[in-house]
Design a protein that fits this description.
Helix 1 runs antiparallel to helix 3 and helix 4 crosses helix 5. It contains five helices and two strands. Strands 1-2 form a two-stranded antiparallel ribbon. The chain folds into two domains: 73 residues; 74 residues.
Length: 148
Amino acid sequence: MNIQKITKYVVLALGVIGLVLQVVILSKGDDIIEMNALNGDFSSVSPIISLALIILTVAVLITLVSSFSNLASNPAKLKKAGISTAAFAIVVLISFLLSEGVETPMKDGELLSASGSRWVGTGLRTFYILAIVAVGVMLYSGVKRFLK
């Protein structure tokens, strides 16, 4: 049995479970669920949240398995993926080196550590660098196509 058939049956089973849980929640009604939640009883919605987490896990696993199997079957794709991953790691490293961390008080009274502040700066700089590269590539492609 191939992965697509297994995936189809798993999706079907999870869909049926989700439908049953939805009917249970709808049959209880909003008021009862709210009253139970105010008393700390989340048993009405906990199963559907657990199901959502299971679905997310299954989707991530299926995506990873199919991606890695496609990469393993084609050495050229594997090399290209490695180069892309290394380029992304270099961008993150450059962003990290350019960032500085400062302890920052937050609105809720907590304190953001210098390390946390540096990682936030790293994420922002990584985003900016990748956005600039993406805009540059689109402009280059558009100009190149226009000149042809």
